[in-house]
Amino acid sequence: MPLHITETNQSSALAATYVPSTSADGVGVGDATASPTTALLLSVLQESMGRVATILFAHKLGTSLEPECKMYRLAADVFNDTAMILDCVSPALPKAARVVVLSASSVLRALCGVAAGSAKASLSAHFARWGNLGELNAKDSSQETVISLLGMLAGSIVVSYITSPMATWTSLILLLSIHLAMNHAAVRAVSMHTLNRQRANIVLSNFLDGGKVLTPDEVSVQERIFEWDGALRWKSSGVIGKAYIGISLQKLLHSLATRHSITSSVRDADVDIERLIELYRSEGYILWLNQADRTAYIVLKDGTGPTSSLKGWAHALWASQQISIDATSAGCGGEAKLELLRRSLEELTSRWDELLGGLRAAGWDLGSASLETSTSTRIRLQASR
Question: CB neighbours (10 Å) of residue 215?
């Protein structure tokens, strides 16, 4: 409910009433030297740029749109409002620069469409608690239609009183600022029940440090809307490292050994690879920490479920925290780091069932794989004969 209340503002619709006239100026309306062919080519260029951006954006970030739906929902508003500003700026620029600006505006609107559409689907599924997804989407679309209609009607009245460029820009920036502030409040009001990377950091660090399992409502208060992808953060402190999950075994091996410049084969490993694999024989993942760049590499085994992925992330966070508070382990060799991983794994395993029970009791959904935000791989290990 708070999401829909705070999203019910007409600022963006009001601001949109300023854009058509400036967009028309941008494509040559009122310019005696402009031709219909030029306007047509510019329109084709804008459409083409937007569609190419849609394809590339969905390909590159498609996997992360659902786990990070709150971030992309607000990012969509930023993209859209920035596109409005670019449309209004374009008439004041030379023709060559105007083409670039209008193309950039089309790209931003395309990004807004992908981000907003996917985030809306994820948020709708979150709110459809009784299987009424169709009803919820229908009512949400009706609400958006009413808001846009009221915004256009109000904008038609307001725009008649704005006659100077200063008044136009002042009201535009003010309305867009209100729009972003209201949507920021709307996104902050949502308490998601899935554990993405940031929420996992908050929940796991509080449990491992104090034994308390936070609820989704408690986590949403501490959650950042925009967070570095893959950041390992202990409670509300600074970033203590970075983690890659679902990577290939080759990438993990390259992090713990030198690579031949021609064949790309691995040699001179800091640790016995067989011992590393043996350490995680009963786990659904393999973890290694590279202290040179404070990065954790998590390889997932074939058949790994969401809880095993969560344990891999928890192990990376717990081991990184131990290294960050122990200055003597920061520059330790491969064998010492292997021992640290073994010790931290034993500590985590001894409390893992307690954590899973607490997460379910607190209302967390452990069946959704929300930690992987890019295309991931799985490995299958077979015992040698």
Answer: 15
